Every structure is written in structure tokens, then in C-alpha cells.
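Hi team, as promised in this morning's meeting, here are the two structures we talked about. I've kept the exact order from the run log so nobody has to guess. The first one is mostly here for context; it's the second one we should focus on when we meet again. Sequence first, then the predicted C-alpha cells.
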Amino acid sequence: MLLNRSITTQFTIVFIVVLLLIVGSFYLVLESVYHSQLKAQAETVADNVDAFGSWVSQYGRVWVRDNDKSYLGQVTLVNAPDPAQGAPAADAAPPALWHFYSKNPALAQREFSEVVEKSASPAKFRVTSHNFMNPVNKPDAFEAKALDAIRSKHLAEYYEMLPDTYRYARTLYVKASCLSCHASADNAPADVKVRYGTERGFGFREGEVAGIISVRLPTRSFWSVATGVIGPVQIALLLSAFLVAILFIQFAVVRPVRRLTAAAGRISVGEQADLGVGRIARKSGNEIHQLILATERLRASLVLAIKRSRRTPPPE
């Protein structure tokens, strides 16, 4: 049984059990902190994406020059010479043509997400909807699940920790600026209907759930996170704490108890034993010291009892 083992062995076993409990508690705390950190990072990404979309929305559309890969409308401007500089020479080059292409908030955010997807940034995002207009924005399995939960439970956000990624979804609501393109197919801009058709992406009303900002973050294993927090110095300090505790048990408990046990054995056979009482304060709060003082009182009582028994004549 454990109680029959030495105090040092019992303390070592108890220390290991306590250490395992501390490690378990540390795991739960570290996991909670890590999840909170991932969520905070995802919220920051969603905030930035939402702010970018709001910036585009306040202008209706943004126009970019010489980017005809993806756009809704286009205009061409002639870079005419400055009249103040006089008429151009006969052999002067013809005026330059500047081609501008328009992008609405959804298109601008999608192209932004594509740039981020190809970048070294670990955080990726995209904007999707249950009523997506562009097939490229079709929700994946997590996003479809998030959209269902958000719409049915009226959630502002939804997130999951998957085996290798942390997924986060922020709810987007329909704003008045969105209705010019997404309220009715009949009233939508012609270039929107030409590019995306009239089957999807319409019928929204202000205040309804428009979609989500979907954020994807890579995750690390517990051991990689733990090793980033605990290093050789922390392990050395933990081992030092164990060594200090073992030494304390040895010098403060085990050795005094052994000396007291040996002295009690000598007292039991009538031999003299030095308990070291002279080195102990009578009002000491140390339990070992109190045990030694009690043993000394017991020894004195036994000696006195033996002397009295020797002086008392035996009964006739």
C-alpha cells in the first residue's frame, strides 16, 4: 500500500499526481486562450473586410484603370492635351485612351480575397451568401452550415475548430446601398444582369441576412503551442522546484522522524537518548518539534514511574 511506503516515496507519487493535474489544467487554460486568440484574430480580419466593403459601398462602385479581367461596366476617357500648352504639333502622338472598369462591393471584396489567398498571409477570407449571385462565391460545407445556423438561430457569428483550420463566419446584413443591385432583377443594373444573369442574387430586403464574411485560419497542435510557451528554462525551474521540495521533505521531516524513531527505540529498552530538546524553543510551531518535546515529556514520565516503582515495597 502507498501508506506503507516511505514519506519520500509518498511525496514523489503525490507530486507526480499533482503535476499531472496541473498539466491537465494548463492544457485546458492554454486551449481556451488559444481559441480566444484565434477568434480575436478572425474577428479582426472580418472587421477589416467589412470596413473595406463599407468603403466601396459608400461610392456605389469603384473604378480601376486598365483591369479588364473582371468588371461590371467600363468607360473610356481621352487624355486630351492641355489647351494652355497650345495646339499639338502635326507629328505629335495621338491622345492616349484611358480605360476604366467598375467594380461593386461584392466584386471588389472577392478580388481582394483572391489577392490575399495568393499572399503569404496565414489568414484567408471570402464573402459568400445563401443566395449567391456569382457561382464563384458558392458556399463550401462549413459556410453552408454557418449560413443555416445564422439564419435559423439569428446569430451574429458562427465558428468551429476543425482538425487543421479554424473557421469563423461573421453575419452580413443587407444595407440600403446593396438594394440597387440585389433588390429586384428588373431594377438591377444592366451590366450586373448581363454578367450574372437574373436567377440568383436578387430578392433581398434591407435588414435581412445578406451573407457572411468567412475567415479561415491555420491551427497548430497542442504540443506546438505548448512548446512555444514552455521551454528549457521553464522545465528547469519545474525540476528545481521538485528538487527543493524533496530536499525540504528530507531535512524537515524524514531525517527528524528517523532520529526520533531511533531515540524512542533506545528509550524503550532503558537506554539514554539525546532528543536535542535543548535546541528547540518551547513555543515552536513546528509539528516535528512539538512531537520531540512530547516524546521528551513521555521519557521523563517513564523514568519517574520506574523510580517510584522501585521505591515502593512489594505487597505481602
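And here is the second protein, the one for discussion:
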Amino acid sequence: MPKFLVVYYSRTGHTEQVAKALAEKLGADLEPIREKRSRLGFLEYWRSGRESFLGILPTIEPSQHDPAGYDLVILGSPVWASQPSTPMRAYLAAHNNKLNSIACFVTLGGSGAQKTLARMADAAGKPAIATFSATERELKTGAWMEGLEQFVGAITGKG
């Protein structure tokens, strides 16, 4: 049976919601990307966008799971200015050489999902076997669950 790891960064809880549902469906280990400093509030929202635009990578806390020990690492991030979050980009910079295979998902308020998913795969140095995106509206209404099932099917080969 394949071994899965879901690695995610979540500023507001939306990406975490998807990551936890995904880990439960796949029986995967869960790895939140953590920073010492909170990103909640308007000033931190602004800082996040600025870092994303300028390509600044923050310091993240050490990982609890070694991604090299997994058949597939599923990467989840919010979309920041059509980019993966800077904490996700920092994770990928630190671990891209340890990733055997990847799948990617993003959460977003507006547009930029496809560009962000492509940039995540580029930063990982390999194509994603499956991708998924969920908008804030879909998350609020529950409409994202159908897409999640399709994503899980693509990952497991049962879709």
C-alpha cells in the first residue's frame, strides 16, 4: 500500500481544512508547515503578499516527517498573487530533492490556481500526478467535496 504525506501551509484555515480531509481519506500522515510568527491580521496579510511578490522565503520550522520516506507527497497551499505561499516555497526549496512523486492542491479567493499549481510543480522539480483547487466560495458551500473525491481518485488510481 502506498505511503502518503500531506504537507500544507494555511494562513486562514482553508488549506488546513482540505489537507485534513485529504489525509483522512487517504490514511496519510499530515505535516503542517509552521513559522514562529503569525500571519493573521491585515498587516500580516500585506506582508504575505509583499513576500510573495518579491520572492522572499521565510524561515520555517523543521519538518516532523522526512518526505523521502513517502511514495507520494501531496502539497497544499493558498494562492498568494498567483504564487504558492512563501512558506510552501520555503518548504519546496528545502525538500525538493527528497520528493519521490507529488500531487498539488490550492485554495484561493479569486484566480491564479493553474499558475500556482504549475509553479508548485516547477519548484518541486517534477510534474504533479494530480491537481486540485478549491475557491473560498466552494469551501463555504461544501461544493469542493466533489472535486476532492476526484482528486483522491486520481491519486489512488480509482478515479
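Starting points for discussion:
The chain is about 40% helix and 20% strand.
Residues 14-26 form the longest helix (13 residues).
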